[in-house]
Design a protein that fits this description.
It is a single chain. The chain is built from five helices and four strands; from the N terminus they run βααβαββαα. The chain has one domain. β3 and β4 form a beta hairpin. It is α+β, with helices and mostly antiparallel strands and 97 residues long. 32% of the residues lie in helices and 14% in strands. The chain is globular and about 45 Å long.
């Protein structure tokens, strides 16, 4: 699950570790940090990300003909923007250290 604005990156929610009565709370910004496992920003940890829209009754897989980007053009991001999103900061550090 992505956090709003990707500020805190991605979390994995395991239904076996969340009480059924808490599922509604688990998908909130607060709940995901309590019941989820934060993923590090790497392909090995996150894997391929597909765009999905999840509603109470269905999951809609968004298919697009636009090619996926091949990387990040760091010249378009200032240091404040990079620091504001944990995934960007982790990627930047892994590339530039």
């Amino acid at each position: 699950m992505a956090t709003p604005g990707l500020r805190d990156g991605f979390y994995e929610l395991n239904p076996r570790h969340i009480p059924i009565k808490r599922w509604t709370k688990a998908i909130t910004t607060y709940g995901v940090t309590k019941w989820g496992r934060r993923l590090f920003t790497s392909y090995e940890e996150i894997g391929k990300i597909d765009l999905l829209i999840v509603t109470p009754t269905q999951v809609i897989n968004i298919k697009t003909s636009v090619p996926r980007p091949q990387g990040i053009d760091w010249s378009h991001l200032n240091s404040k923007a990079i620091k504001r999103m944990r995934p960007l900061a982790e990627l930047f550090r892994s590339i530039h250290t």
